[in-house]
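R.M. (postdoc): so does anyone remember the format we settled on? I'll just put the structure tokens first.
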């Protein structure tokens, strides 16, 4: 079965990076600092996640709760999603290069996603302490 999802629109990230940096700077200033620290990250992370689709954010939260690995069954049970919907969102997360997707022999078999190594900070204790 083929999934239909939008390909990420590749655009120059400089504008978004500048805006997020300015958000972190503003937060630092509101805390009486003229420099950015890790304490300024939660507002930036919350802002970034607020612009993503609800399904992706919910599965990302579940991925963090399950230490970076999810199966189709965990998603369907935890988020009350149908298996095809779970597989579609898993494919979307692979397409945006957030996770690796372990393919199965058939479309109806269990699939597994694992957070890419570049994003393992999200499952660290340090990240959990910074969540708003």
């Amino acid at each position: 079965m083929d999934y239909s999802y939008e390909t990420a629109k590749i655009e120059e990230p400089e504008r978004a990076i500048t805006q997020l940096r300015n958000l972190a700077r503003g937060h630092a200033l509101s805390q009486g600092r003229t420099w950015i620290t890790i304490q300024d990250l939660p507002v930036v992370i919350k802002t970034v996640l607020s612009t993503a689709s609800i399904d992706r954010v919910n599965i990302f939260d579940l991925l963090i709760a399950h230490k970076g690995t999810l199966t189709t069954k965990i998603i369907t049970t935890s988020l009350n999603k149908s298996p095809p919907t779970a597989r579609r969102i898993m494919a979307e997360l692979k397409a945006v290069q957030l996770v690796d997707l372990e393919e199965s022999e058939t479309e109806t078999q269990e699939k597994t996603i694992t957070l890419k190594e570049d994003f393992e900070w999200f499952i660290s204790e340090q990240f959990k302490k910074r969540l708003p």
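R.M.: ...and that's the designed sequence above, right after the tokens. Also worth knowing: The chain has two domains: 13-51, 53-132. The first helix runs from residue 14 to 30.
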